Amino acid sequence: MAGSVHDGQIYSKLFNAGEAARLFTDSAEVRSMLIVEGALAKAQGGLGMIPEVSAAFIHRASMELAIDPGALQAGAGKNGVAVPSLVAEFRKEMQAPEHAQYVHWGATSQDIADTGQMLRLRQLLTLCEDGLKDLLGTLARLASDHAELPMAGRTYGQFATPVSFGSHVSAWGWPLLDLLKELPALRETALWVSLSGAAGTGAEFAGQGAALRAKLAEGLGLGDPGRSWHADRGPVLRIASWLARMAQVLGKMGDDLILMAQSSVSEIKLSASGGSSTMPQKQNPVQPSVLLASARQVLGLKAILDGAGMPRQERDGAAWFTEWLTLPQLCLSAAAALQTARDMAPGLTPKAEEMHAVFSDSLGLLHAEALSFRLAGVMPRPEAQAKVKELVQEVLASGRPLGELARDAFPELDLSGLFSPETQMGDAPANARAFAAAVSAL
């Protein structure tokens, strides 16, 4: 097996990160850092920190020249970071030493690497935004179309009370909608430029550090934090946390679908399912399983990343290296979960007959709570609960439906509509429609 399922030839289609996969390659990393070096030179030229003609030359070269990532391997192995080799290769490829000497003027490796990473994370968040909107649109249609379709609600894995399939879908969708609405604030508080120099003081910029950082941020379309964040990994952790929560919500969706697709339940039809190498009858819920597995992966990596979120002193190589080991995989697994959910959702089809059968097969026990409240209209609530518990035990012992036993026990009580799931879903249909309306209002 390859070191990452996202990079290998065998499993990359199973854990398909879509367009996000292009953001976490050696070539993408080199390109993003070159963009930062070019934008830095342009900003410095505008402030008179380096000759404008050199700034223009460097900026143009950063967009036109290509650096082979392989050329950075030896230097990264020795220095623990790729930027020194990148700068050396960039200067060499420019073939203009009179201008090349001003490349990377006053910056430190972490400024370039962190800012380049933010450019790629910005693209990732845009892909996630588009993906969430597409997924939410599909879930909203499912919720609206099946707002009135009764299904058994389950708590602790046991039958509870009737809900609707639409409300069940909306329970997947509401948290995703919340995440989508959080994106503007996340971009503002996390997509930051980094430019602080060797020890985070900007001393190399001759008193123009703040102005230069602001100008660089403007040129790159990133936020200006107004300070150094070399040893404050909050921006990275905020993005990772948002991605982890997204994966977690999708994991819950996947787990619910796995349960609904069980042979003993079979309440959902998946448009795509996997087969077994030996059992012809198997229709494995592969896509929901990808959602759950990806969520577990992301949450585990998030814990590692949190542990590295307390770098020592002004900069910490080990903490930074830990980010490199975990953040790309976290991003790709979260992106794979979203891509899988987008591919899967349009093909979800509830099995209405199987859902209805649950209510008759369970002998009316899903209506036990409703019966207790109906009885509470003619007797104290504790007494009503006790009576219903007695009837439930009789149902389990005799196999007779709860409705029959209730009519025998309380012949004068109006039980109309009580054992019809269509009339016992409470606000479930309204909740499903409210979710669909909220998505439509985006």
From TrEMBL:
Which PROSITE patterns does its entry note?
Answer: FUMARATE_LYASES (PS00163)
Per its UniProt entry, which superkingdom is the organism in?
A: Bacteria
Which EC numbers does the record give? 5.5.1.2
Please give the family membership noted in the entry: Belongs to the class-II fumarase/aspartase family.
Look up the signal peptide feature and give its range.
none
Q: What is this protein called?
A: 3-carboxy-cis,cis-muconate cycloisomerase
Report keywords, A-Z: Isomerase
Organism name: Pseudooceanicola marinus
Q: Where are the transmembrane segments?
A: none
Which EC class heads this enzyme's classification? isomerase
Provide the gene name from the record.
Answer: pcaB
Q: A Pfam family in this protein?
A: Lyase_1
Q: Which GO terms describe its molecular function?
A: 3-carboxy-cis,cis-muconate cycloisomerase activity; lyase activity
The Adenylosuccinate lyase C-terminal domain extends over 363-436
Supply the InterPro entries for this chain: AdenyloSucc_lyase_C, Fumarase/histidase_N, Fumarate_lyase_CS, Fumarate_lyase_fam, Fumarate_lyase_N, L-Aspartase-like
